[in-house]
Amino acid sequence: MRQESGGMWWVRQVLSWTCLLAVLGLLAAMVVLPKTLGSGAYTVLTGSMQPGMPPGSLVVTRNADAGELRIGDAITYQIRSGEPAVITHRIIARTSGSNGVTFTTQGDASPVPDAEQVRPEQIRGVVWYSIPFAGYVNGWLTGEQRIWAVGTAVVLLLGYTAAMFTGAAVERARKRAAGTENTTTANTTTEKGRNHATA
Quick check: 53 and 87 in contact, CB under 8 A? Predict the structure, then answer.
């Protein structure tokens, strides 16, 4: 039976744990944090916010009052107040007038500002973070499917973690047994040598 060298065993363990933590972090960022904190999660469909938010990116927003918003903030807002369709663009100007505060927005890759001013009631949130291409997964899994997918992933990851610990324990036990056997063999050989010399 071919035995794995100590160096390769550590490399395999480090890679395994890195992948495990990366998957757990992605699940937390895509599902757990938005659900727990009541944040919004949206998928970028166009290239207007490239290169920072390419198509397919998952954008997670947090609630923010109009008074907290500053030039340079990326916000997700309704195209028309009260309707579900939204856009994520960056604030480039803030205007205060008799009708209250409005914001001028523009996509990072757009050559000109957006034609319509954005009112505070249209804003769904300010961008908290974004994950490239994760929006495709978010779009495929919605509602109950997402809950089942997350639950399945957690069970598989826990099973994989248990298998890793079990494998490591078996490997350590095997090494200890091999060390004990080698020590016993060496002692037996030495004893035989002594008996032969005495005779």
Answer: no
Neighbours of 58 (CB within 10 A): 24
Show the tokens assigned to 43. 């998928």
- Please name which of 77, 84, 85 lies closest in space to residue 122, comparing C-alpha atoms: 77
Confidence of residue 197 (pLDDT cuts 50, 70, 90): very low
In this structure, what DSSP letter does residue 28 have?
Answer: I
What would you report as the CA-atom Rg of the chain, rounded to the nearest whole angstrom? 29
The whole-angstrom separation of Cα 196 and Cα 134 is: 74
130-145 pLDDT tens trace:
988 888 776 666 656 6
Q: List all residues 6 or more positions away from 3 whose beta carbon is below 8 Å from its beta carbon.
A: none
Q: Which residue has the tokens 């369709």?
A: 85
Q: How far apart are CA 34 and CA 41, in angstroms?
A: 7
**Is 0.90 surpassed by the pTM of this model?**
no
User: Which residue's structure tokens are 């095997």?
Assistant: 174
Residue 2: CB atoms within 10 A of its CB come to 4
**Residue 159 dihedral angles phi and psi, to the nearest 5°:** -65, -40
